Amino acid sequence: MPRNILPVKLNEIKEGVVTDILHNGMGVIMVDQHYPVKLVDAFLGEKIRCRLTQVDRLSAYGEVLTVVKPSADRQNQNKAYLLEAGVAPYVNLSYSGQLKLKRRQVEQAFAAVDLKLPVAATIGADQPTHYRNKTVVPLKNQNGHLTTGFFDRKNKDTIVPMDDYYLNDPIIDQTIGIVRDILDQFKTPIYNDVTKQGAMRYIMVRRGYYSQQVMVVLVSHLAQIPDEAAIAQAIVEQVPALKSLILNHNPRQTSQQLTGDNRVLWGDAAIHDQLLGHDFVIGPNSFYQVNPKTTEVLYQLAAQMGELKASDHAIDAYSGIGTIGLSIADQVQQVYGVEVVERAVEDAKINIAQNQIKNAQYIAADAPVQMEKWRDENLPADIIFVDPPRRGLTETLMDAMVYLNPDRVVYVSCNPVTMARDIKYMTEHGYQVQGPIQPLDQFPQTAHVECVALLVNKH
């Protein structure tokens, strides 16, 4: 068939068997063996009847009409709104099915870069729902009242209303509802992306898992919102365990949710929580893992895989507020942290003092530059921990690690695709993977998976 003649038409009804799951959680059925149709809420082996909603030259998107033959792992939860917003693509997949699928995703990522490495069974979460300790939700005047939820994946002008977000700590959901209703009561102007007018853009809520302290951040286009003092007083009176109420001024015309411009309206500038016995100060902009219980498992696993010794000098790259480095400080001789975000390094130094840790120092610098400097200073680097954002490591950083020449590198990743790419690069530059890649489910009900791997110096 000529390439410019498509095998499908818009709104056509098709039926097929799901043969693959993409890394965004969408199932795939094939038309004419080479044309993929991507579907939400469609799992491996299922026979699906669907209507095509978007068609282009290379692929199509469809809407599931009927699951003709369901997977044995399908468990419908009757929460279609989560699929509409795209926040929990695996909500109708049993938890054991989710763990098997995530292992398969990791295996596919490494196979795609021609790395034949063993992948261990995915470590599951003890609590696969209502686990998140932080959320940021948009606001919109919709159907005559103020609405919170997440934007419809098909219509970005509409918010899917939510009271039970399914992934959040229930106290966070309760707090969102309270703050939304207070803003609605005061008729607070909501920012409009089209007119560029209004004030409120988002509500952010954080809650400490162990401390149970609550932070509310009002993200506003304006530096001050109307009735600010009265709104603040109402929030203080109605939100249980509130420790910190902050206004974040975000006038930017971007998708960035928060800026660094914070003003305390009531209480403290940060909350506290504990991780593996250490106390951490968490501000509005702090990167702190969203699933606290599995984070403890993750960091213990990373330390175990790193085979730490009391004589080790450890480097914590992408160190953030110091969570990984400080959690292993009592197992090594010295920890060096490097992070390009100065505010995060300031938080790390506060956490060092807070926990009376004497063998850790954190530096605000570009990691590759700092690593080359450490090598030139003959700093003994026995092990490096890297926990990069989803885009993974840069070749510049990996070259700097190779130059620093540590015995071991522990790679913690939230994206197996970029992790596989980076590990492929490291194996071509003097390192080899020891033991299996270990997936861990930090994000149940979603298509995301955390992984840990150990690389050792071949020389």
Question: What's the average pLDDT?
Answer: 95
The tally of strands reads 21
Strand order of the largest sheet: 8-7-6-9-10-11-12
Helix proportion: 25-40%
> What number of structural domains do the residues give?
3
Whole-number radius of gyration?
24 Å
- If classified by CATH, what would the architecture of the largest domain be? 3-Layer(aba) Sandwich
Name of the top-level CATH class of the largest domain: Alpha Beta
Distance between the termini: 53 Å
What name is given to the CATH topology of the largest domain? Rossmann fold
Category from helices, strands and their pairing: alpha/beta
Low-confidence stretches: none
CATH superfamily of the largest domain: Vaccinia Virus protein VP39
Which term fits the overall shape? globular
Tally of DSSP helical segments: 10
Percentage of residues in strands: 25-35%
Q: What's the story with the biggest beta sheet?
A: 7 strands, mixed
Pfam family, one: tRNA_U5-meth_tr
Keywords: Methyltransferase, S-adenosyl-L-methionine, Transferase
GO molecular function: rRNA (uridine-C5-)-methyltransferase activity
Active site: 414
Note down, in words, how this protein is organized.
With 459 residues, this protein is α/β, with parallel strands linked by helices. The chain folds into 3 domains: 1-71, Nucleic acid-binding proteins (OB fold (Dihydrolipoamide Acetyltransferase, E2P), Beta Barrel), CATH 2.40.50; 134-275, OB fold (Dihydrolipoamide Acetyltransferase, E2P), CATH 2.40.50; 291-457, Vaccinia Virus protein VP39 (Rossmann fold, 3-Layer(aba) Sandwich). The protein is built from 10 helices and 21 strands. The strands form 4 sheets. It has a 7-stranded mixed β-sheet. The protein has a 7-stranded mixed β-sheet with strand order 17-16-15-18-19-21-20, with helices on both faces.
